[in-house]
Amino acid sequence: MKNAATSGIPPMPGDMIVMTPTREPIVTAASHTEQQSPAGKKESGAYMRNGKNLRSLLGILLPTMAAWAQPIPIANLQTQKLDMSVVTYQGKESMRLVDREGGGGIALLKNSAFKDGAIEVELAGRPTAGSFAGARGFVGVAFRVQSGGSKYECIYLRPTNGRADDMSRRNHSTQYSSEPDWSWERLRNESPGIYESYVDLESGAWTRYKIVVKGTRAELYVHGAAQPCLIVKDLKLGEVTGAIALWVGPGTEAHFANLKVTPAP
Prior knowledge:
Layout: E1 28-29, E2 47-49, E3 52-54, E4 68-69, E5 77-78, E6 82-89, E7 92-99, E8 105-109, E9 117-127, E10 139-146, E11 151-157, H1 167-170, E12 174-179, H2 184-190, E13 196-197, E14 207-214, E15 217-222, E16 230-232, E17 243-248, E18 252-263
Antiparallel strand pairs: 1-4, 2-3, 5-8, 6-7, 7-18, 8-17, 9-14, 9-18, 10-11, 10-17, 11-12, 12-13, 14-15, 15-16
């Protein structure tokens, strides 16, 4: 994106996987008689290691009858261009990702595979101190990531646009792009207003984010809304399977918590 705008015990197939960005790996096996929590609800409870509570910060929830739980350490996220740490942000434990080199980047969830389904996360984004004038706190999720990040689909937010005193900027609060061939700039130039939209956002505030993907269609839901604020009907990579990644744009400090992925049946 240009500056102009803006163990262990291996999981069985279909098992519930919970990703906890702790600094050491831990493995917990739950009883097979335990019931799965409903998709979309925050998991409760704590994992114990050496007498310390390790609460789940990010989770991947796969619908299953089995109940093996395997917290995954922070090392399971792979990034080259972002600084990564676990912090408490606005009262919530989070994965903090900060653009290091000025061009943004992704934090790839290792061994993830996603084609169709839903991705939900709580996220927050704001411009870093001293960032360029066009920084917007760009933050979102990349999906169907190919070859470690060479290609991917992405839906992201521009939080500072949400309440800007400028309707043009407000109408650019959400964005779809498909890197590297279909940048936000190309999509805006060739199809104005089709791949971006308005939604109420606040810079640096926790925001509920959900995308639902099926075939070449993706829908973005924000703040738990029943209706999507952005609909993409022609995902540029086509119907492919790829990894999931946390996406951070140029000049951004981002926070992520409670990531849940529900594959389509």
